[in-house]
Amino acid sequence: MLMSNSTGKLARLHYMANGFRLLAHGDHVVCAVTGEAIPLESLRYWSIDKQEAYASPAAATAAALGKTESRA
Asked: How many helices (DSSP H) and strands (DSSP E) are in the chain?
């Protein structure tokens, strides 16, 4: 198994309509609503306008409605 230099490292992304561009290498981003780490291979929800990631459809909806979920 190959070990990546980006294991456990926060990535920086530029979110676009059909994907994202990697600006700084890493293996995860942080949900803007819940604060949980989202592995890049699991990232499905983000805001182009706010340039932030969401861990779930519920978190994306909460952000769109201006609500926040508790960070556990």
From this structure: 1, 6
